[in-house]
Specification:
384 residues, alpha/beta, seven-stranded mixed β-sheet, three-stranded antiparallel β-sheet, globular
């Protein structure tokens, strides 16, 4: 009796962290062992080394490592002094952390719509959201565009709106670190950029982690203080109220090893995305990346006609193929965010996408036989 499951019977991981772990096993083990040997678990030498390497990778002057992508966003808003009476424009089609940090600072998130083709903040809707904030008596202070699923937003369009209204831009690149817009990597396109190293991200650690990128010397210095309780000349002299926002040294050591192979993994993700597009473009709406950008493909998300998603998910699940829905509810439909203002004219694209999107397995280690199995299963489910 054959004890080995046939390829067509094996479950396919949605994101295969284990495959990367197998590839980097010894290097990761040795990196962790070095930290265990020197016992500098908080702000050890690997943290500063990682900050140098991250800044060099994307071309930013400063990289400030921190405890999570959410804290990366929150620390920037704190450093900018954003609070009650201020409005921050956010896309409605994103993970809740984008708006959560605004509310935690006492400011008001104002929801704008996204573009149906890119899933990213629509500059025209963003401009209307600024007007809506002013009508409510709020002061528009910042915009948080999200480079969703790994694809850069229209950074030029967003920057123009910010400049016209005297606003700041905080780029939420939690899903897109490593992506390129018009020849420049994310981390250099806004006054501040935040990213996440959550394990499922294209560059992920073995727990929570994040980083902030900026060319602003004064902002970088303040962020380094705020992430350690707002410390002044030393840790027992608090210059202002901050938080515990540090990245653990062990996580920094892991990320240093992962960063070495990250460019290769980005290319591999691109090849997987290209094969999906070639195999599915005639049966579903596949993501489009213009010539000005490249995506790091945090997710591969297709769109289906309304009412077809659940049947596809069930058919794939029966064949050991997982799927995800990001996001089944836009922010303005979620209980915690229903009372916040939205742009005049509503959020039709966000609501439409929430009913149509479904994400397929995506990672750098998705081999061609497994991907062919996924593509064939999707095609069977959609066209019979």
């Amino acid at each position: 009796m054959n004890q080995h499951a046939r390829l067509e019977d094996r479950a396919i991981p949605f994101i295969d962290v284990a495959a990367q772990r197998r590839r980097l096993g010894r290097a990761i083990d040795e990196a962790i062992s070095r930290v265990l040997a020197h016992c500098q678990f908080i702000h050890g030498p690997e943290v500063r080394a990682l900050e140098v390497e991250l800044a060099a990778f994307c071309g930013a002057r400063h990289a400030i490592a921190c405890s999570s992508g959410t804290d990366a966003l929150r620390l920037v808003l704190m450093a900018w002094g954003i609070g009650p009476g201020d409005a921050v424009i956010c896309p409605a089609f994103t993970f809740c952390a984008t708006a959560e940090v605004v509310a935690l600072c006492g400011a008001t998130p104002v929801m704008a719509d996204v573009e149906g083709e890119t899933f990213n903040l629509d500059p025209a809707s963003c401009a209307r959201a600024v007007a809506a904030a002013r009508k409510l008596g709020l002061k528009p202070r910042a915009i948080i565009p999200v480079d969703l699923f790994g694809l850069p937003v229209d950074h030029d369009g967003i920057a123009a709106i910010a400049a016209a209204h005297g606003m700041l831009v905080l780029d939420d690149a939690a899903q897109a670190f490593g992506a390129v817009y018009k020849g420049r990597k994310l981390g250099t396109l806004a006054p501040a950029t935040a990213t996440s190293f959550f394990p499922a991200k294209p560059l992920g650690c073995y727990g929570d982690g994040g980083a902030i990128f900026t060319d602003d010397e004064a902002l970088a210095a303040r962020l380094r203080s705020l992430r350690v309780h707002g410390e002044g000349v030393d840790k027992y002299d608090a210059a202002e109220i901050g938080l515990t926002g540090r990245l653990d040294t062990i996580q920094a050591a892991i990320l240093l090893e992962k960063l070495k192979i990250f460019p290769e993994e980005i290319l591999a993700r691109g090849r997987v995305a290209a094969r999906y597009a070639a195999g599915l473009a005639d049966v579903a709406t596949v993501p489009r990346v213009g010539n000005e950008s490249n995506s790091v493909w945090a997710q591969y998300t297709i769109r289906l006609a309304p009412g077809r998603r659940d049947a596809l998910a069930a058919a794939l699940r029966a064949q050991g193929i997982p799927t995800g829905i990001y996001y089944a509810k836009p922010l303005h439909r979620q209980q915690a965010y229903r009372h916040f203002p939205i742009v005049d004219g509503g959020l039709p694209a966000s609501e439409r996408l929430a009913a149509e999107v479904i994400s397929l397995p995506m990672h750098a280690y998705l081999d061609e036989p497994a991907q062919d199995r996924i593509i064939a299963a999707v095609r069977r489910a959609l066209i019979g």
